[in-house]
Amino acid sequence: MLYSLALAIFLGFLAHALLDRVRMPALMGMLAAGIFFGPFLMNLLAPSFLGLFPDIRLLALVAILLRAGLGLQMDALAQVGGPALRMSILPTLAEVGAVTLAAPWLLGFPPLEAALLGSILAAVSPAVVVPRMIDFLEKGRGLDKGLPVLILAASSLDNVFAIMLFGVLQGLVLGQGGSLAWTLTGIPLSLLLGLAAGILPALGLVQLLKKTSRPFFSPTLLAAGLALALVGLELALGRKVPQASLLSLMALGFILMHQREGAARTMAVHMKKAWGPVEILLFVLLGAQVDPAVALKAGLAGLGVIAAGLAARSLGVGLALWGTGFTFKEKKLAMISFVPKATVQAALGPLPLALGLAGGEVMLAVAVLSILVTAPLGALGIGWWGDRGLSRSPGHVRPFRRHRDSQGLPRVGWRIRERSTGLVWKVIEEREEWRVPEGESTLTPAIVLRIWREQDQPGPNRGPTRYLEFTPAGPGFDWHWEVVEAV
Questions:
Q1: Which of 348, 369, 389 is the last residue of a domain?
Q2: pLDDT at 437
Q3: Up-side HSE of residue 98: CA atoms within 13 Å toward CB?
Q4: Is residue 132 domain-shared with residue 231, that is, in the same domain?
Q5: The predicted structure's pLDDT at residue 311
Q6: Residues 186, 217: one domain?
Q7: Which of the 8 DSSP states describes residue 481?
Q8: Between the N and C ends of the chain, which has fewer C-beta atoms within 10 Å?
């Protein structure tokens, strides 16, 4: 097993190093390595290592949902407005509907299982989309209408909606043996139980964070432990409320973000760092689950289902952007940006097989096929079309870096003094955002600093915090502040 673990980690890092040089998603190499070295071809991975896959898949799903909850902010949702919400809902519904119609004809699935497959395929991949949108912003492309910002927000919300839809459809599939009335009654009950199961532990953790100042206390580990316990509780109950844990994990992260924002952002950073090895094991083990014979047998039909879903998704994006003032080229970029699939498909794709559904093996093969096809196409398409479809705003080359350097803004960890009061604060967070100043119509780069005054009660999450916002047209940093200590 240790040999297999070392091989998986080595292959994952090698794939990342090679594919990153050509700006392609590294997960493709991890998947290919799992398929090639897995039990259906070279058979070099130990059975004990392959047996870790259910736990790794579950751990990945917990991380995805908890991070999704930590990333939901009401103020950000209010800023992006209706188009982002429409882009997170309409394309997903369109793709699920198209797959529901195509999969029974091409793959022989019952309609409900076809809809379940559609919800697996529907989520876009922020891992592919987000870095490229940030790159466009840094290059000053699309700043006049803010399309990259819109795509950034919509791609994250899209994941949340797709996972929730999967939970509802999973409940319907597992409830087929009972009456329709019981199934329909059980869905809202599961939703309420899921929300309660996430909110109550989160409120307890919030109270604990307020009272403890012990330096060895780890809010991240405790939050992760609570999330795993919620999933374990669902398994112990025999999945009688199958989507409850999905909602509870997002509710847990959402409450933590809104009640203890500082601790929640620290958790998000820690989880992002820990995601690397989990991602490698997830995709290598996912590839090892795929029988190439089954994948080839479902290949053309699976591609047809994927193509039908993507075509409907593109129509959904166009409908969501109707009347927004974007040009055809800009709308086409948004459509291409909603093509790539990756992490959510890796986490959800094996679930139908684990649940014992007759078409579970084919669903897994189609999910993997969607990653292998759409991730590179989306990555290449976004880069090629974005450079041609987004206008470049003059004077906005690397705007955040230029703005930060011109004002000499402090970084995280620095201590600054307020000139008017003499009080010393510590910078604990730095965010890059795009804002539309009052009375203007174009986006401008803004750097938001969160500062913390420790007062006389040292320890985590103690003392007041404030937010400072700096824009090129606003007051400079040295008007009211000075750096005391730079680290």
A1: 389
A2: 62
A3: 21
A4: yes
A5: 95
A6: yes
A7: E
A8: C
**Tens digit of each residue's pLDDT (9 = 90 or more) over 399-431:** 677 777 777 788 888 889 888 888 889 888 888
Least Cα distance to 188 among 211, 210, 171 occurs for 171
Q: What is the pLDDT of residues 34-76, one digit of tens each?
A: 888 888 788 888 888 888 877 887 787 777 777 767 766 555 5
Same domain, 347 and 409: no
Q: How many CB atoms lie within 10 A of CB 474?
A: 14
Q: 236: which 2 tokens?
A: 């112990």
Is 287 inside any structural domain?
A: yes
Distance CA 313, CA 319 (A): 10
| 138, burial (CB in 10 Å: exposed 0-12, middle 13-18, buried 19+) | middle
Each residue's pLDDT tens digit, 121-180 = 998 887 678 767 767 766 667 766 778 878 877 877 787 778 778 877 877 787 644 445
pTM above 0.85, yes or no: no
Torsion of CA 101, 106, 109, 115, to 10 degrees: -30
| DSSP, residue by residue, 353-405 | HHTT-TTHHHHHHHHHHHHHHHHHHHHHHHHHHHHHHSPBPTT-SSHHHHHHH
Alpha helices in 71-179 (DSSP H): 74-106, 111-122, 126-139, 147-174
Q: Parallel, antiparallel, or unpaired for β 444-452 and 465-470?
A: antiparallel
State pLDDT tens for residues 10-20. Answer: 877 787 777 77
Work out whether the CA dihedral 454, 460, 465, 471 comes out positive or negative: positive
Residues 233-278: tens digit of each pLDDT: 766 665 554 455 666 777 787 788 777 766 776 777 777 777 778 8
Kindly state whether residues 358 and 446 are assigned to the same domain: no
Rg for the chain, CA atoms, rounded: 23
Residues 374 and 412 in one domain: no
CA 478 – CA 299 distance, rounded (Å) = 62
Average pLDDT over residues 351-358: 82
CB-count burial class (<10 Å; 0-12, 13-18, 19+) for 128? buried
* Residue in 113, 116, 115, 148 with CA at minimum distance from that of residue 134: 148
Expressed as residue numbers, the domain containing 126 is 2-389
List the beta bridge partners of residue 415. 426, 485
Q: Which pLDDT does position 199 carry in this prediction?
A: 81
| Alpha-carbon gap, residue 428 to 159, rounded angstroms | 28
Q: So what's the pLDDT on residue 307?
A: 95
Asked whether residue 385 falls in the same domain as residue 412, the answer is no
Integer CA distances (angstroms), 486 to 449, 458, 469, in order: 15, 20, 19
